[in-house]
Recover the amino acids of this structure.
């Protein structure tokens, strides 16, 4: 959507900025380090923003609402954490293992769910996500079950030429940001490619896409796997960030939260998921200092969003700027 | 592992399945009519159990609670439909899903504020305690009662939908709301009634489950997932599908737990995956409802 409208209108300041959206996004995320009250929160925000970006690839661009993305976040986190705890893998290898586990999970689950549509898709992804959660919970000999996976020793990331000290919060933030930036570039490339255009076409009218001779099923499966990979990367980074993997993150509630972050920022927008994650997590940080009933606020926020702000914060802002310029 | 034990466990599965049938029927009705996927169905189930606890304390009668709690939750359902769900008609599936998901969050937290986080023990009512002999072993009387209530409710619902004028309007409305409205019937009121009916059924399921599983703010969470599986296996919008699949899932889960408790939950998902591969629309699914 954004790309198409950007080409159509004249070269105002807005379109100029829109063309450099990846670079701007990365800069804005780096600035979080100074905006957020502490480094760990900033790291949390960019990880959840990445998670929401992966989710939004399905929800915003392909029009598929998945309630099972937490499973891939979890597979990434457990894949990464387990390879460090039980295999003693170096951080970068562990990250790769995490992403690969998420890709395998997404490929398998994707093959099962991609034929279902609409409400079925949401329900089946939720149920299969819970299935992954149940497996990780029951395999407590490996995963620690209810207590979560503990003792992920990741203090140094060795890039060969230089080393990143992950104990230092600022260095850890930039380490995570580097991967987020990579994912952002990848997604931008993807959306600008014919594949990306096909995704949006499927969202608008799937039957017509099929009639035009495109393989909609294969395209949807591929984007499901890609989304799973990005969610998995976010999960793997989360495991490194926290040094533990709580079992809760695989629960479908986490899938719901990330859907809500995407909506809060604005689906159909490139940077919206990050805005949503930032608002949500900062709000949580502030509100939970005053009350233990944060979940009530979350619930009401969900309801208010759907009823009054269906475009999300960033989506509404973008629409305003576009109509002005 | 004797045959008696397997038969007994099958009956346990029937009791478990009865609760799932009530849940899935409500969800299926609401979706079939309103095309609103109710992700707050588990929360209504939980609120039903709490409403039952309150009613039981006030009246000291389990039967009275069984009547009052679903009615109270149905009223809550009316209010929710009228204020929150109604603005969303015609805005696709995603927004109602997210709204009801958030609603569940809010409902769980409100119950936590009102009744505490720990949950409330709920004793089996006295006249339903004990066990009866089924010929192959002793079975708890309460579970037999549960199966009986479910059979009665499903029967009544079937008669209501197939034999009454209200049922005719409901079925017509599920098929083509536009035409029904053109014929001069106020479809919005029917939708509100259906939402209330569905949430009332969830409340009944919650209260019936309370003596077996206890009453906690989180009790609706696993049931919601189970009800989803039942709906997917049975087929969305089909009452027969919800009934058959509910029993099927209940029996499969309890038989699996007889052999290996760890795999009970997984067996349900395996059943769902199998159904999806063989019949993507579910056992009794109608085409067209899901786009």
């Amino acid at each position: 959507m954004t790309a198409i409208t950007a080409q159509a209108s004249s070269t105002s300041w807005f379109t100029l900025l829109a063309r450099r959206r990846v670079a701007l996004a990365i800069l804005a995320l780096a600035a979080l380090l100074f905006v957020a009250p502490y480094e760990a929160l900033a790291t949390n925000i960019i990880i959840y923003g990445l998670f929401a970006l992966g989710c939004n690839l399905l929800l915003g661009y392909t029009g598929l609402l998945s309630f099972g993305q937490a499973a891939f976040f979890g597979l990434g986190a457990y894949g990464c954490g387990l390879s460090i705890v039980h295999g003693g893998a170096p951080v970068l290898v562990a990250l790769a293992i995490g992403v690969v586990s998420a890709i395998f999970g997404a490929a398998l689950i994707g093959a099962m769910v991609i034929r279902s549509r609409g409400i079925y898709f949401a329900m089946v992804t939720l149920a299969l996500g819970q299935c992954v959660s149940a497996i990780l919970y029951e395999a407590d000999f490996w995963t620690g079950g209810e207590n979560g996976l503990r003792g992920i020793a990741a203090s140094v990331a060795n890039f060969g030429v230089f080393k990143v000290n992950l104990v230092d919060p600022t260095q850890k933030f930039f380490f995570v940001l580097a991967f987020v930036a990579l994912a952002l570039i990848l997604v931008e490339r993807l959306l600008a490619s014919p594949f990306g255009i096909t995704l949006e076409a499927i969202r608008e009218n799937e039957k017509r896409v099929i009639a035009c001779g495109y393989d909609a099923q294969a395209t949807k499966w591929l984007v499901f796997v890609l989304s799973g990979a990005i969610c998995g990367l976010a999960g793997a980074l989360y495991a490194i960030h926290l040094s533990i993997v709580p079992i809760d993150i695989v629960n479908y509630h986490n899938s719901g939260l990330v859907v809500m972050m995407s909506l809060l920022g604005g689906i159909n927008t490139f940077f919206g998921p990050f805005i949503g994650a930032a608002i949500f997590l900062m709000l949580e940080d502030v509100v939970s200092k005053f009350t233990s009933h944060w979940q009530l606020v979350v619930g009401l926020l969900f309801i208010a969003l759907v009823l009054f702000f269906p475009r999300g914060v960033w989506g509404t802002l973008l629409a305003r700027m576009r109509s002005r310029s | 592992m004797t045959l008696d034990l397997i038969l007994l466990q099958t009956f346990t599965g029937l009791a478990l399945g009865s609760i799932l049938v009530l849940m899935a029927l409500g969800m299926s009705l609401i979706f079939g009519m309103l095309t609103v996927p109710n992700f707050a169905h588990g929360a209504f189930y939980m609120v039903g159990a709490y409403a039952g606890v309150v009613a039981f304390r006030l009246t000291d009668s389990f039967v009275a609670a069984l009547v009052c709690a679903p009615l109270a939750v149905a009223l809550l359902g009316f209010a929710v439909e009228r204020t929150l769900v109604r603005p969303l008609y015609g805005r696709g599936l995603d927004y109602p899903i997210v709204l009801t998901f958030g609603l569940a969050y809010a409902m769980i937290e409100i119950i936590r504020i009102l009744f505490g986080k720990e949950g409330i023990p709920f004793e089996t009512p006295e006249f339903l305690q004990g066990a009866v002999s089924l010929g192959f072993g002793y079975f708890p009387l309460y579970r037999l009662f549960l199966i009986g209530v479910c059979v009665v409710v499903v029967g009544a619902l079937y008669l209501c939908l197939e034999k009454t004028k209200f049922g005719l309007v409901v079925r017509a409305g599920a098929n083509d709301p536009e035409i029904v409205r053109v014929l001069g019937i106020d479809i919005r009121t029917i939708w509100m009634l259906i939402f209330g009916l569905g949430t009332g059924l969830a409340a009944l399921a919650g209260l019936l489950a309370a003596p077996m599983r206890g009453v906690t703010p989180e009790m609706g969470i696993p049931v919601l997932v189970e009800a989803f599986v039942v709906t997917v296996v049975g087929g969305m919008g089909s009452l027969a599908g919800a009934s058959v699949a509910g029993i099927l899932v209940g029996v499969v889960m309890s038989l699996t737990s007889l052999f290996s408790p760890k795999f009970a939950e997984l067996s349900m998902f395996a059943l769902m995956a199998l159904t999806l591969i063989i019949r993507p629309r579910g056992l009794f699914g109608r085409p067209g409802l899901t786009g």
Observations:
- The radius of gyration of chain A is 19 Å.
- The domain at 2-324 of chain A is CATH 1.10.3470 (ABC transporter involved in vitamin B12 uptake, BtuC).
